[in-house]
């Protein structure tokens, strides 16, 4: 077991903790709610629970509390996205809304860059089909 990183030292704390991640994800889901490609991918009528999962995951990733894993288990994000068709179009739509959300936070440059580069890399990593006609597996 490694010692937990003190919260003061984490990116999580530096950007303002949970309220910042809530604002990020709420803004992102405002975009998803209006997106004709992404909105139908979310099985639940209420996007609130999905927003909560993404918020808790991002908080944990950046050094905040481990509530995500305590409630959902190991993230295994590629596996959890396997039921959905994530092609280049879905990735780009996702990133468009996330970009607007990141920009809305008006973080200091280095924090904004670190957050954005991570999200962009993660979105490319989660693409699971290059075929625009292939159904989800
Ligand atoms: C590339 C485009 C992406 C698409 C189209 C997409 C789509 C989805 C969908 C439809 C869900 C199910 C909704 C739910 O019930 O939670 C989901 C869940 C989730 N996504 Fe994504 N996603 C994408 C990228 C990402 C990225 C980049 C991350 C992380 C940085 C991420 C993190 C998550 C998490 C944490 C969950 C909840 C997993 C769980 O605990 O069940 N997604 N995503």
Describe the protein's topology:
Layout: H1 11-14, H2 18-33, H3 48-61, H4 67-72, H5 77-81, H6 88-105, H7 109-125
Helix pairs in contact: 2-3, 2-6, 6-7
Describe the structure.
This protein has seven helices and no strands. With 137 residues, it is an all-alpha fold. The chain is globular, with a radius of gyration of 15 Å. The chain starts with 10 loop residues before the first helix and ends in a 12-residue tail after the last helix. The model has no long low-confidence stretch (mean pLDDT 93). Bound molecules: protoporphyrin IX containing FE (HEM).
Question: How would you concisely characterize the structure shown here?
Answer:
This protein is mainly α. It has helices spanning 11-14, 18-33, 48-61, 67-72, 77-81, 88-105, 109-125. The radius of gyration is 15 Å and the shape is globular.
Strand content: under 5%
Given helix and strand content, the structural type is: mainly alpha
Helix content: 55-70%
Regions with little confidence, pLDDT below 50 for 5+ residues = none
Head-to-tail CA distance between termini: 37 Å
What name is given to the CATH topology?
Globin-like
Say which CATH homologous superfamily is assigned.
Answer: Globins
